Amino acid sequence: MKDENFNDNQMQDENNRHEIIQKIRESADKEKIPESLNPENLDRLLEQGKNSKGRNGKWRDAAADFAFRYWKTAGVAAACVILVVAAVNLMPLMNLNYRSENKADSAQSMDTSSEAAKQDTGAEDSAASGGDMGAEPKDSKDMAKADEAAPEKKSEDKETAEGYIAGSSYEELYEQIYTETENARKEWEQKRMADTGGYVEESGGSSASKNDAAASTEAAVAEDTAGTAAGYAAGGETDFSSTNVRTEGVDEGDIVKTDGSYIYTLTGSGTLRIVSADGGSMSVVGQTSLDDLTDSIQEMYVDGNTLCVVTSGYDSGLEWQGDETYMVNSRDFIRLYTYDITDKSKITLKGMVEQDGGYYSTRKVGNYVYLLSQFYPVYREDAEEAQPRLYVPSVNNELLDSSDVLYPAVPQMENGQLVISSVNLEKPDKIQESKSLIGASGRCYVSRESIYIFGEDYRGEEMRTRIVRFSYKDGEIQARAAGEVNGSINDTFSMDEYDGYLRVVATRYKDGWWGGSMSNSLYVLDDKLKMTGKVEDLAKGEQIYSARFMGNTGYFVTYRQMDPLFSVDLSDPADPKILGELKITGFSEYLHFYGENKLLGIGWETDPDTGERKGLKLSMFDISNPADVKEIDKMVLKNVDFCQAMEDYRSILIDPEENILGFSAGVYDRNYYELQGYYGVFTYNPEEGFQKLLYQSISKWMDSSGDELACVRGIYIGNTFYLCGSSGISAFDREKEYENCGNLEW
């Protein structure tokens, strides 16, 4: 077991840097502000920009921002130039607003069965081809025509998951989205008031629209035994890392990818670069940009000579209402841009598709990409039954047929919708199939065969989690089953599909969802989501922090002040059994199988008496005997306050075959209250335990928000490790103790 600081020498360097910055701030106070930038002259400056030919609104905004910043901090820029010139070994980093897909919610078992019909709602949407990544976005004025373009369709009766009903008309959906959800919310609030005997704050869960909620929705991910599988370049000569995914065989997008010969990077500003990488020798061979669009970059996929970029955005426009009245229409959307990168120097757009709703998540299996978005209808007072475009999502500018929108037979309080669409990359400008689920605003878990949508239901005596299962294959999406379990699900690693069964671990709140005694349960559900077996009342007073399943064995961690690691035998779905319980200090928030009979835990060391955190903890468990799991080694990084690995597992570089583990972490400076960033690379062997290979400071390229920690990625190609960011890439020789062997800046 090792206790050590992340890097004492670099911590001292950071303190020296802060002292220099403080002196700069003090000198800035003495700087004289130019008279032209005094507040009374700012309006005149902006007016001049407004009247300048060839200048647009973006220029005026930039001028205003510059004037304001200069007036507030005059003199700092000149001093900062000295800092930049004096900086040594500038490491490139990425500044990207990137939502992590992590923590889940939810939880007892109901019934269900069946199929929903497949309906192809893909409308053609041509996209220009060429070297520029941009394509003209659809104008929201086109949406005003959607009501006429999608006449009322009386749908055939379609079989769907028990407990959910396919809409038969837009009028029916209007009633469900507004009236039924509002009644459910009022009923719940009355019950909650009666149960608590106190004032109940109005819940925003029903009334619809809440576009802001879509932005804060945490997304989800996929299946059982996953990990980072090493890839092989053409000819199988060079091994390389790949994105750490939840489900092996189900790819997930990220902001950095490699194919063993090239490194692909995306920045928040919308720039895609293709970098040829041969050890420390690197060069940009292709580049394109989304600068002219308002899209926000989310992630990308690379498969052979096809590259896909997922973006999200917000569109608004005016609609004439008559009597000199206009209504502002606004909507969130996600887009999938597909490019041909056969010629790396000429990135060519092949097609683009668009779907209503805020970004939720995406997956890629084979030649199909699956888009998931969170759609919120407008407020009821702004919606009319005859305007379904205001409460039914569109894909490629065409409304979903009412039969492709499912609503719960027992109305829920939420009227947001989770929209799932498939895109065949051979037809990148078309949506193949879409489904929308009303009342779904929780999480998703994607196995190799199913997409599970799950979210909490607060009504009743205790919290439950509703689960809906969709099958997906070759772009076809069908509702198959629905059910529920008691309790709240921590994240998507707490669910796992294996041999037709869904295994779930959940934390229950038996005295009401708002408090009371906690306990934990394990449930096994069949493919109809009917209860098959269960184990309840585990680790009372604690809650689940992490879980991982492999075949017929499951492991999960609960925590209060000690960390019990439970192992479970799932070989008999009707009779799951707890095999063992290991109690250690601290707790693991992320578990990953690390070679044969080993389980890696990343979490926090804590004081067993007070629960106070003492540092970041790496644990290695021997699971050769699941009934007697042992912690065989641990390393505690004492001064780490934040670890991106526990926020977004895709950000972790982990490859047991190469025996490499890497992630970014943050340390708060107690003197200046700023977050300092590092990237650490580790290895493990039974004789020496955990060993550090690289501690690289990245705080020089971070702003005060610390967002950079979420955006740095570490990858390897052969014997070279690359640290990738928005300003460039740094290379390190793995055979020479991670000596810096090359830098590429842009």
UniProtKB/TrEMBL annotation:
<feature type="compositionally biased region" description="Low complexity">
    <location>
        <begin position="212"/>
        <end position="222"/>
    </location>
</feature>
<feature type="compositionally biased region" description="Basic and acidic residues">
    <location>
        <begin position="135"/>
        <end position="161"/>
    </location>
</feature>
<feature type="transmembrane region" description="Helical">
    <location>
        <begin position="74"/>
        <end position="94"/>
    </location>
</feature>
<dbReference type="InterPro" id="IPR019198">
    <property type="entry name" value="Beta_propeller_containing"/>
</dbReference>
<feature type="region of interest" description="Disordered">
    <location>
        <begin position="105"/>
        <end position="164"/>
    </location>
</feature>
<protein>
    <submittedName>
        <fullName>Beta-propeller domain-containing protein</fullName>
    </submittedName>
</protein>
<keyword id="KW-0812">Transmembrane</keyword>
<dbReference type="Pfam" id="PF09826">
    <property type="entry name" value="Beta_propel"/>
</dbReference>
<keyword id="KW-1133">Transmembrane helix</keyword>
<keyword id="KW-0472">Membrane</keyword>
<feature type="region of interest" description="Disordered">
    <location>
        <begin position="197"/>
        <end position="222"/>
    </location>
</feature>
<feature type="compositionally biased region" description="Polar residues">
    <location>
        <begin position="105"/>
        <end position="116"/>
    </location>
</feature>
